[in-house]
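User: Before I run my own analysis I want an independent prediction to cross-check against. Here's the chain; please return only the structure tokens and, at the end, one sentence I can use as a sanity check.
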Amino acid sequence: MDYEKLVKSLIRHEGVMLTMYKCPAGKDTIGIGHLVKDSERVLFSRGITRKQAEQLLLTDIEDCVKSMVNFPFFSNLSDVRQRVLVELDFNLGTPRLLQFKKALAAMAAKDWSKAHDEMLDSKWATQVGHRARTLAKMMLTNEDPPFLT
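Assistant: Structure tokens:
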């Protein structure tokens, strides 16, 4: 998997905040979409550096990649589609991603049009807007958006 492109996409979609903020779901977040755990709250209360944000991101990506064991078809996906699934896991968390039953079934069946449509037919898509359209198009076309080329 092209980690450089994944990192670039996540930075574009998540942004970089070096002090704690509330994400759209109302959770304490810092860096590049890192959800702050209770044990980290004091540690991050004064903010972090860009380098620390990038390190947290890499650790979070590794956690998402490890969770791909929940998706037996993952290893058969192209690099582009693997990055989409990892970014979905990063954004939603595995429990919420597992609720995308129709989209995941379509991915497993390599029905890219249905996977695209199911991704966009979700509350998540209305919440994240452009990000959803970008990831759904990547799933459909198996192509990176211009900002990644």
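Sanity check: Residues 31 and 85 are 21 Å apart (CA to CA).
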